[in-house]
## 1
Amino acid sequence: KDNIAKAIKKGTGELGGQNYEQVVYEGYGPNGVAFIVDCLTDNRNRTAPELRKIFERGNGQLGSTNCVAWMFESKGTFLIAADATDEETLMEVALEAGADDVITDENGFEVACEVAAFSAVKQALADKEIATLSAEIAMVPSSTIVVDDPALAARLLKLVDIFEDHDDVQKIFTNFDIPDEVLAAAQDS
């Protein structure tokens, strides 16, 4: 993706005179859903109005710094396929390495840890040859808004897609939770 290539070039100094900076924008989508949009931009004066317009088109509003960040906590998260290990082994390895929690569902496992323990947990999983589907430091909401209206779910998902299509956007964090049956209905509409 262009964003990854841009970040690599920035890190290696290949972009020459361009100066990129990381900027975090916060705001609200429809129904008061919180959004944190992490960007890498070479022109903050261009990116801010573009993101404001995306929020407005999605029935939302760009907010001020820390208007929604207080609802999120920075956490290390690891996703592991169900067939990569068993729950008992994963619990033992992850908790011993400093993880806070291991959540199991039909799709596999999610391991959560404090940012300070991220490297230790990642190394412990690698040492035991437990493959991860993803390993990242993410902004995890302290509470979520359950979206039970398929039309609202469709609008929120479209807003996320529009943000993801923006060249400067690196990551998006939200606090909505769409149940599977509502998600299916939203995608059909």
## 2
Amino acid sequence: MRITLTRMASANGATVGVLTDAQGEHLCYTLEDVVREVEGRPVLEWKVLGRTAIPRGTYRVVFVNSPRFGPSTLSVCDVPGFAYILMHAGNRPEDTEGCILLGLGATESGTLTGGTSRPALEKVKAIVHAAIDYGDTVWLEVK
């Protein structure tokens, strides 16, 4: 199964995006740090630790037991130059630290609508759980 994160322009220290399923159906909004990627340049040349969105690409998504977020935490695997990239709840750029936040609503100021992050996270986790239980590998395409 493939889910796709389509980013919009970075503004106000954050990048809002849209997460869709394999059929292109809207699942939720995303919030990441600023996109600093420089095509063709090594990650270490453009990454600002804890304040940079992951590079475009396709990554496997699995569940891990996170010391901070607990069991069944969505993890984005094998991101070049990054470690411990998770998909979790949060509303502001300060909450990301390089991770991908999920929410059912987004604001024009570059945050996720308060009270929508946990429901969005549970929605995506249920879809990923179902795919994995069915025997599928889950891929996240970031564009």
## 3
Amino acid sequence: MTGPITIQVDDGQVQAWFDQLLGRSQNLGPLMAQFGEVLLENTQDRFLEGRDPDGNAWAPVKRGGRPLIDTGTMRDQIAPVSGADFVELRATARQAAFHQFGTKPFTIRPKGKKALAWPGGPGPRKSVNHPGLVARPFMGLSDEDRRAMDDLVERYLAP
């Protein structure tokens, strides 16, 4: 008969891996910056696709053409901002919120003139009743965004 069996485990490699993981998890700034780039790219792609973050097509525009893409100004004025523990996607174009959330009907009045007029219009007017804008959300987290962010986290924290 033999004596007891003893197994010794050297946990040095495991401890080193946990130390690396702890170090990477204390500085998430690079990961947040990567999140911002993914969100920016996917948001700009939605302008080309004419879809909201949930995959729904934007309402068509009455004058024809593709919604939110005439000049590209709004799409080009979106930028990520990130720090050690946050990421934001900012749309700085003046009209961004109106398109993201839509508007109620409103009245347009001249600011520096006595009347409003435009080419092909009905002639000078003291005011025009605008029917409001339909919401065409372009900002938000899509399922694709979430999957991409999950992949980035796995790669960032991998040994």
## 4
Amino acid sequence: MPTVKIELLIGKDRQTLIKIRDFVMDSVVEILQLPADDRNIRLIEYQPELFQMKPPYEILIEISLFTGRTKETKRKLFQTIVDRLESNLLIEKKKVFIVLNEQPSENWGVRGGIPADEVDLGFKVKI
């Protein structure tokens, strides 16, 4: 159920953008042990005057998720994302900035406005 937002400068071809999206989301699904169809992702491109990152960063990935994953799971998630982007698309690891926004599940309204802590999510959070 995490939501993922990828932000970068405009200029990459459509196929590369789709691969970036898929490599990031596949990493999230795998490492967080989510159902295969649990994909909530946006990729946003900006004109140069509307996107600034301190060098060497060029891609910002924000992942909002429920609180509860261990530091080791988070570390594995970070490494899996940057490893896949580098090995498959030649995007240098040091150019990727990843931020996790952790929130209690009670702060998420799902399945018609029900707090997420009141529904069976179909996956474990404490991994």
